[in-house]
Structures are given as C-alpha cells and as structure tokens.
Amino acid sequence: MAKELLKGNEAFAEAAVRAGVEGFFGYPITPASEFLEYMAKRMPALGRAFLQAESEIAAIHMVYGAACAGKRALTATSGPGLSLMSEALSYIAGTEVPAVVVNVMRGGPGLGNIAPSQSDYNQMVKGGGHGDYFPIVLAPATVQEAIDYITLAFDLADKYRSLVFIVVDGNLGQMMESAELPPMRELRKEPPEWAVYGAKDRDPNILTSIYIDPPDEEITNIRLLKRWMEIEKNEVRYKEYDLDDAEVAVVSFGVAGRVCSSAVKTAREEGIKVGLFRPITVAPFPFKQIEALSKRVKRILVVEMNTGQMLDDVKRAVGGRVPVEFYGRIGGVTPFPDEILDEIRRINESEDAIEDGMEKVQWLERLEERIARGE
Amino acid sequence: MVMEKVDLNLVYERPESLTETTTHYCPGCTHGTAHRLVAEVLDEMGIREKAIGVAPVGCSVFAYDYFNHDFVEAAHGRAPAMATGIKRVRPENTVYTYQGDGDLASIGMGEIVHAAIRGENITVIFINNAIYGMTGGQMAPTTLPGMKTTSSPLGRDVEIVGYPVRMAEMLATADGASYVVRQSLHDPAHVRKAKKAIRKAFEVQERGLGFSIVELLSACPTNWGLTPVEALHFVRDNMVPYFPLGDYKVIDEVAKLRV
Questions:
Q1: What percent of the residues of chain B are helix, what percent strand, and what percent coil, each to the nearest 5?
Q2: Does A131 share its domain with A148?
Q3: Phi and psi, residue B230, nearest 5°
Q4: Could you tell me if A358 and A210 lie in one domain?
Q5: What value does the mean pLDDT take over residues B222-227?
Q6: What pLDDT was estimated at residue B134?
Q7: Residue of A48, A51, A68 to mutate, testing the B interface (most B Cβ within 10 Å of its Cβ)
Q8: CA A212 – CA A322 distance, rounded (Å)
Q9: CB contact under 8 A, A208 and B55
Q10: What is the DSSP string of B94-129?
C-alpha cells in the first residue's frame, strides 16, 4: 500500500478497523472525537457494531461486554473520559479479557483544556483503577507508529488477555501526516474458547472478576503478576537515536520525544555528543535498557509534557549513577525544539551533581524565567 | 416379590437451565423463585444454548452459579451497558440482565434508562425488594416511606431523602421500550403471572422487538426482620399498593404475542 496524507485520529480508527475491531463504543470528547466520528461512518458500512454511549462509563462497559463476547473491541477518549472509565478498566483487567483503549491526552487536572499533554502518564502506566493489575501502555510518536501500534495493541491484548492502552496526545490526534495503512485483516471466525457466545455442546463459560475467597483472589493476583512478568520479559519496545557515542542522553516519549529528536539533530550538527532514547512501551518500562544507558553516558535529560511523571521511572532505572535533569512544558503547552536545544547545550557543559529532587526545583526556575520572557 | 407397577408422571423437575447447586440465598428469599422462572422460560423456548446472562452486584452477584448457560458478571449498575456490548456484537444470542434495585435503580440508573431509550434488544429481570440485601439492609431507591433500614434507622424520611422511585412507570415513558411490566412473587397466582411476563419479555427479544423489562416485587425476610411468610405478606400489603402491578408499556407488536 502507498503512503497517504492521513489525519491522526482518523488513521488510528482505520487502523483499528483493519486490525479486526468488531465493536466500537465511545463518547465525544476533544481532542479524540474524530475517532468516534470516523467510526460512526465506517463501522456500520462494514456491518460492525458502532454505538455512541450515554457516557464514558457506559462506553467502556460496552467494550467490556463485547470483549467478553470474544470480539475485538475498543474505545477512544481523553483524560476526563479515562477517569470515568477507570472502574471498568479494573474489571476488564480482573476478568482477564482483551481490550484496547486509546487516550488522546489533553491538559489537566480537572476540565483542564483541550491542548496536547502527557499528563496522564501515571494514570495510564500505574493503572488508574482499583486493585493489582498491569496494563500494557504503548506511546507512539508519529501517525505511522500509532497505526502500527494499534495493530500490535490488539495482538498483545489477545495474546496476554490484557488491557492495552495507546497513549498519544492532541498533537498526534489532530495532525495530518503521511503514513501507510496496513491491509485489512480477516475477522476472527471462531470465538476464543473462554468467551461467552452460547453454551452449546459445552459447559457454560463464566467471566467474572469476583473471587470471594481471598486465597482464590491471591492466586488470581499471582497469575496476573506472572503474566505481567512475562510481558516485561517479551514486550519492551523503544527507539534509540545517535546514542552510540553519546555523552548526554535525552529520554522522552511520544510527541515530546519527537520534538527532542529535532533538538538532538541540531545539537549533533553543533558537535554535541547527544542521543535520544524514546520508550515505545512506557509499560512495561524499559528499565534495563535505561540502566544500561546510564552506564555509558555522563548525564541524562528527561523531557515530558507533564511535571515529571516518567522522570520517576527513569530515575529508578538510573539509580543515581549519573545526574538526571528534567525539562517539561505543562498544562497543554508543547515545547519547541529550541527549548530542548538550550537544555542540551547547558547540560553538555554542566559537571554539577544534582541532589535528588533538585532537578525539578532547577527546572521550575528555568521554566518560570522562560515564561516571564513570554516564551 | 412382584413390585406393583405405578405410572409415575413427572410433574416437576429442575429445569435444564439451572445447575444443581445449593442455594446461598436466605430462607424465604424470592431470588430462587425468580431464577427458576427465568430458567423454565429459557428451557421452554429452547434458547438455553444461546443465552448469555449478565449478573449484577448485590445478592444475585453469584447468579451464574445457578444458571446453566454462559454468564458474565458486571460492575455495580453497569449490566445494561455490558449487555449492550454483548448484544451489539452477538445479535444472534439471547442476552439478559438480572439486577436488583440498588444496582438498577440507584447506581445504574443512567445505564438502564439509556438502554431503554435506545430500544436495546435485551431483556431485563429487575428484582425490587426495597432494600440493599448483600451489604446488610441499607436504604434502597425503592425503600418505602417510613421503612426502617440500617441506613434509615428511624424510617425513610421522604422530606430528607426523597421518595421511592417507580422504575416501571419511568421506563414506560421511553419511546424505545417495547415491553415494561411489573409483577410480584408473593403468592403462587402472582408467580404464574410473573412467569408469563418473563416469557413474553424473552419473546420480545427473540422477535427483535426491542427493550423488555420485567420488574418483580420480591421479599427480603432477613433484612426486613420478618419471617418468610410475614415477608410475603409485606409485599402484598405494603409493596403492591406503592408499586402497582401490571403492564406499563406494551407496543402493538408485543400485544399481538400470545404466550
């Protein structure tokens, strides 16, 4: 297939269609609504289920139902919707059925705004709902990656009977970019053996997340944890740019990572030995890879569009081996490559040790100066 | 010795749609009656093998232990949404929810109302016993005025917490609802009427006629602090007057059905 100019949200939706999604249930929310609108046309035309639910709560419980019925199902939303969906996400995880949720992140907390943000990192990566469970979280940085990872998300969801999140931000959802869609996959003909589809010539299938006897729940928790450990072993994904001889490493995910790649490129032209490490799976997080990275660079800069949520994970991986600095734009502000370039130049010349926690204090000082300058 | 041959006619047996399970419901609880009626209807219509039940949160959270067909367990109040998801991707299956009053009329009010508004082609069995059973007898949205519960120890004061909700009456106003009925389980005659209503509700779904709900007034002797017999009398004497029985919505196509 040839490359086409595609709008983010619509391309993600079409990618889900081609991955064999048979049920889309959603609720309008900016900046994810085009996903819903696209599905409203596309799914009925293919004879597949589309429904605009009365709330995000209902939408995700419909996804839950369709997933229990053994069909590929998904929804797309943004932070406020995700908060409402947290209940069902926990149930989906506890019932061990596969489902895919796309979060087109916007500024928060509260109603926040509709501008691109990465402030739902903790909400997605650390679970969001109640109980012990571990979702897979994929963080693409381009429309093409998002298309590819939506296909992957369904495969991972089925393979591990797991919840898989795709986190993008409003930038990616709204931008038009040249990308290639995969061919249409054939729909699954036979339901998975665990699904509910009618107990004909077999014992009933029961799908539940209740284990009233604590030892049973403990066994379930152990099973979920072991499955997660398997996922951690097999499914860590990331991209590296110019890291071979790098002395400074930038760690950044999603669109922020993409901004960083421009800055890294310019810095390289200036002769700065800098590279970029971009986690694709923010869960499972590439702890080992970043640990290894911290053994061969002098300094690390974490860049996010939040107040340093992934920063904690990076610091855990680095374990104090080298100084970790932070730069973020927040509240729906996307950083410019020049801002990151300034940071790279500064860090390249810095020999100072950084006391734990001071990376954020120093960043805030620099950020507030920048804001005062009207940047 | 010659045994006398007796022609035994089997008049009563466990429906195929029920499993052989010891009940966890309290003595005098009418959940068992409601379960059996649903199971008999599924048997009689020959739809057990394609039935998918959606259990609620409440005393009937373990409904799936008793029914011999596929089942899922929903979050509190969300059964109609979950049933919608199942039915929309598997329209060939028979999908029903089984919900109590706390589940359906309180936390799940949004989901049930919108399922009715959409005319979702599912069947809802709604057990109204005017109390939260599983959590220990708290006030429900259907608790009668003046009725004492663990969270309304002086009796439901309508000046403070408002009045009981009449779900059948409310859902009957939805254009999408095709069959809305309230029956009671307090004596054999009403149990027979309840079964007829359940049968009709499933027939509605099988014919693709849209949303059907059967509200069943039920007894909760344990949390009402009554004996099983007193509890049935309480349903008759106190609940039926507040929640009148009968058909609340029967669209023309449903009226033509003979069951």
A1: 40, 20, 40
A2: yes
A3: -60, -35
A4: no
A5: 97
A6: 93
A7: A68
A8: 47
A9: yes
A10: EEEEEEEHIIIIIITHHHHHHHHHHT-S-EEEEEE-
Question: Do A63 and A186 share a domain, yes or no?
Answer: yes
The total number of structural domains in chain A stands at: 2
Q: Write the CA distances from A45 to A19, A40, A42, A301, integer angstroms.
A: 16, 9, 5, 48
For residue A70, what are the CA distances in angstroms to A157, A161, A188, A271, B86? 12, 11, 9, 54, 9
Residues 207-246 of A with CB under 8 A from B: 207-210
pLDDT on residue B1: 58
Range of the domain at A200: 4-234
Phi, psi dihedrals of residue B152, rounded to the nearest 5°: -135, 65
Question: Which pLDDT band holds residue B3 (cuts at 50, 70, 90)?
Answer: low
Q: Which residues of chain A have pLDDT under 70?
A: 1
For residue A179, what is the domain's CATH number? 3.40.50.970
* Mean pLDDT of the region B1-28: 86
The answer on A176 and A263 residing in a single domain is: no
A224 and A283 both lie in a single domain: no
Determine how many CB atoms are found less than 10 A away from the CB of residue A16. 28
For residue A205, what is the nearest residue in chain B, using CA coordinates? B70
**B48 interface with A at CB cutoff 8 Å:** yes
Q: Which of A180, A212, A234 is the last residue of a domain?
A: A234
Q: Are B52 and B95 in contact, with CB atoms under 8 Å apart? A: yes
Q: Touching check for A62 and chain B: CB below 8 Å? A: yes
Tell me if chain A has a CB within 8 Å of the CB of B192.
no
Q: Which of A130, A116, A168, A160 is nearest to A282 (CA)?
A: A168
Q: Is the peptide bond before A109 cis (omega within 30 degrees of 0)?
A: yes
Predicted local confidence at residue B4, as pLDDT: 67
> Which residue of A69, A199, A201 is in closest CB contact with B89?
A69
CATH code, domain with A313: 3.40.50.920
Closest CA to A323 of A289, A297, A305, A343: A297
What pLDDT, on a 0 to 100 scale, did the predictor assign at position A354?
Answer: 92
Q: Are residues A214 and A314 in the same domain?
A: no
Answer whether residue B2 shows pLDDT above 80: no
Domain chopping of chain B, boundaries: 31-255
pLDDT at A133: 96
Question: Within an 8 Å CB–CB cutoff, is residue B69 touching chain A?
Answer: yes
pLDDT confidence of residue B12: 87
**ipTM score:** 0.96
Judgement on whether residues A310 and A204 belong to the same structural domain of the protein? no
Q: Of the candidates A175, A208, A234, which is a domain's last residue?
A: A234
Fold of the B31-255 domain: Rossmann fold (3.40.50)
Cα separation, B163 vs B172, in Å, equals 19
Helix (H) or strand (E) holding B222: helix B221-224
Same domain, A156 and A115: yes
Cα B151 from Cα B140, distance rounded (Å): 9
